[in-house]
Amino acid sequence: MSSILGRVKLEFFQTFAYQGPDHGSTWPAPPQACDPGWTAATYAGGLDECAAAVDAGFDALTFAEHHYSPKQLTPNPVLLAAVAGQRFGSTDIGVFGTDLPINNPVRIAEEYAMLDNLLGGRLRVAMLRGTPNEYFTYFDNPWEARERVEEGTLLIKACWAEPEPFGWEGRYYRFRNIAVWPKVCQQPHGPRILFSANSADGAVFAGTHGLDIGFSYMEPERCAAHVTLYREAAAAAGWEPTADNIQYRHALWVDESEERAWASFGRYAEGGLFALFAGASDDTRMALGKVGMAMAGLGRGAPDSSGLAPREPGAPPPPPMTVGPPFVGTPDRVLAQMRAVAEVVGAGRIEVHAGFPVTGAIPTADTLAMLTLAGRELTPVAHAESW
Question: What's the CATH code, domain 9-382?
Answer without folding.
Answer: 3.20.20.30
